[in-house]
Input
Amino acid sequence: MEIKNCTISDIEEIFRLYRIATEYQKTRFTVFWPDFERSLIETEIAENRQWKLIIDGVIACNWAITYSDPQIWEERNADSAIYIHRITTNPDYRGRNFVLNIVEWAKDFASKNNIKFIRLDTIGNNEKLIQHYQKAGFNFLGLFKLKNTDGLPSHYHNGSACLFEISN
Output
C-alpha cells in the first residue's frame, strides 16, 4: 500500500469513484454529492491536493485536501489546518477502514508542514459516520448551520455540517 498524489491520468477513475459514492449515498441518505466540476478536480491535481491510496497498482481510496475552508470553518479557519474532503473508496476495497490510513498520513503530513489541525466535515446527522470518524481519532465538534453557502457544492446548502478535528 502506498499513498501519493493523483495525476491527471487518474481523473477518470476519480470521477468513477465519485459516481459510485454518490449512487451509494442516494440509497442511504437524503444528502448526497452533486456532480463536481472537472475543473475543480483538475485544479486540485495541479496543486497536488488530490491524493490516492494505491494497492497493487489500483486506486483503492482517494481524497482531496485544502489549506483553507472559511465558509465551513468560519473563525476557526484562521488556524493552521488541512481540511480533508471527498473521501471515496473503490467498492472492491470497502470495509478496510482506510480512514485510519488517511489519519496516519495526515498526521505525518501535518507534522512535516507545521500544521496544527487535521479537519473534515460531513453534512447531515449521520450517526454511523460520526462514530466512524470518532473511532479514527477525530473529535466531533458538533452540528453547525453554515452561515454562507454561496459557491459551495449544493450538498452544503440544505443541511447542517458535522465538524471534526484532530489536534496534531
